[in-house]
């Protein structure tokens, strides 16, 4: 951000990429700005750094990345006593029951710190 501004760039906030397309030897992008107006940008290069929306815009360019977004929540606890069998660290656990919108909860306890690290996927 800072480097881009220092080199003459502009930062647009609260915008949404609507579509991207090939335009001759470059790319075009239609963007809805903060004021709900539309701006069309043209560039020689397009870098898809769109996170979970990346697949949608790659497909608009005819590129199938094979990557599909998966939303999940990660968690890490405070230090805890070992919670496994006979006072050992808790091994990897996976719970595939559907509970409160989550269908996979998994985690394990770190032996070094006693913290439990895990993820929950909807």
What can you tell me about this protein's structure?
10% of the residues lie in helices and 33% in strands. The chain is mainly beta. The strands form two sheets. A four-stranded antiparallel beta sheet has the order 4-7-6-5, with no helix packed on it. It has a three-stranded antiparallel beta sheet with strand order 1-2-3, with no helix packed on it.
Which terms would index this structure?
mainly beta; 2 domains; 7 strands; 122 residues; elongated; 3-stranded antiparallel β-sheet; 4-stranded antiparallel β-sheet; single chain
Summarize the helix and strand pattern as letters: HEEEHEEEE
Mean of the pLDDT scores?
A: 91
Number of domains as seen in the coordinates: 2
Number of H/I helices: 2
Residues in β-strands, percent:
25-35%
Q: Which structural class should the secondary elements be placed in? A: mainly beta
Proportion of helical residues = under 10%
- Main sheet record: 4 strands, antiparallel
Number of strands: 7
The low-pLDDT segments are none
Strand order within the widest beta sheet: 4-7-6-5
Distance between the termini: 33 Å
Topology:
Blueprint: H1 2-6, E1 16-23, E2 26-32, E3 38-43, H2 54-60, E4 73-76, E5 93-95, E6 104-109, E7 116-121
Antiparallel strand pairs: 1-2, 2-3, 4-7, 5-6, 6-7
Brief sketch in words of this structure:
By secondary structure, the chain is mostly beta strands. The protein has helices at 2-6, 54-60; strands at residues 16-23, 26-32, 38-43, 73-76, 93-95, 104-109, 116-121.
